[in-house]
Amino acid sequence: MKAIFFDLDGTLLHHTREYRNVLTDTFESVQGTANDEWIETYNEAFYELFSRCEPEPIRRAFSRIGDCSDPDALVEVLREKETEMYQPPENVHADLERLSGDYALGVLTNGVPEWQKHKLQTYDLNHHFDMVVVSYEAGAHKPDTAPYRMAEQRLPADSYAMIGDSETDIEGAQNAGWSAHRYHGEGFEGFPDAIEWK
Q1: Which has the closest alpha carbon to 133: 102, 164, 158?
Q2: Is residue 50 part of a domain?
Q3: Of the candidates 14, 51, 13, which has an alpha carbon nearest to the alpha carbon of residue 144?
Q4: Confidence at residue 4, expressed as pLDDT on a 0 to 100 scale
Q5: Which residues, given as ranges, of the chain have pLDDT below 50?
Q6: CA-only gyration radius of the chain, Å
Q7: Dist CA 152 CA 158 (whole Å)
Q8: 38 and 6 assigned to the same domain
Q9: Domain range spanning residue 7?
Q10: For site-directed labelling of 90, which of 56, 77, 124, 186 has its Cα 20 to 30 A away?
C-alpha cells in the first residue's frame, strides 16, 4: 500500500485573508481596538514559543501583551476567526474519496494539534484520512524529519508521498526519503498521476 500525506494550511485549506487582518479582527472583537504593537508582540512571542514546541504558544503569546485584558477570550476568538479564513479546494471531497480507494491517506501539518484538527472537523475533511500527524506531537516542525518518521510509525506503508504548498513540505519529505509534489492550488483531480513515486 502506498500512502499520500497532505499538508493542511495552503493545501487542503486555501487562505482567503491575510493573517494580520485576522489578528486585527480578533483584538477588536475582544479589546475593542487593535494596534500594530500588539500584533508585533504577539507574532514575535508566538513564533518564539511555537518554534520550540512550547505548551500553549497562542495563549502565552497573548499573555505577553501587557494591555490585554483577557488572553483566554483572545485565544477562543482567534481560533474561530482563523478557521473561518480558509476555504477547501473545489471538489476536494470527491477527489479525496477517489484517492482513498487505492491509497492510504493522511494529513501531515505543522501546528498545534487541537487547532489543526478543529479545522479538519469544521470543513468535514477529517473522515477522509487514516491518520493525522501534527508537528507538535513529534516535537519538531517540518522540514525536520521527525514528523515524517512519526507518520511512518502511525501509518505503515510501502512508500510515501507528501503533497504540500511550501518549501518546508518538499524539503522535509525529500530529507525523509519520501516522494514530494509541490501543490499550486490546482485541486487534486490530477493525483496520483502527478506524483513521481520513489
Answers
A1: 164
A2: yes
A3: 51
A4: 98
A5: none
A6: 18
A7: 10
A8: no
A9: 2-15+87-182
A10: 77
How far apart, in whole angstroms, are the C-alpha atoms of residue 24 and residue 54? 24
Kindly give, in sequence order, each residue whose CB lies less than 8 Å from that of residue 46, ignoring residues fewer than 6 positions away.
Answer: 57, 58, 61
Which residue bears the cell 482513498?
100
**Residues contacting residue 103 through CB under 8 Å, at least 6 positions apart:** 1, 2, 3, 4, 192
Taking the chain, what is the end-to-end CA distance rounded to the nearest angstrom? 13
Looking at the fold, whether 91 and 171 belong to one and the same domain comes out as yes
Gap between the Cα atoms of 105 and 145, Å rounded: 19
Same domain, residue pair 73 and 164:
no
Instruction: Give the model confidence (pLDDT) of 118-132 as tens digits.
Output: 999 999 999 999 999
pLDDT of residue 94: 94
d(Cα 13, Cα 101) in Å, to the nearest integer? 22
H-run or E-run covering 162: strand 159-164
* Total count of domains within the chain: 2
168 in a domain, yes or no? yes
> Which residues is 109 bridged to in the sheet?
134
Amino acid code (one letter) for 160: Y
The pLDDT of residue 189 is: 84
| CB neighbourhood size of 131 (10 A) | 16
The CATH number of residue 167's host domain is 3.40.50.1000
Comparing C-alpha atoms, which of 179, 189, 27, 15 is closest to residue 99?
189
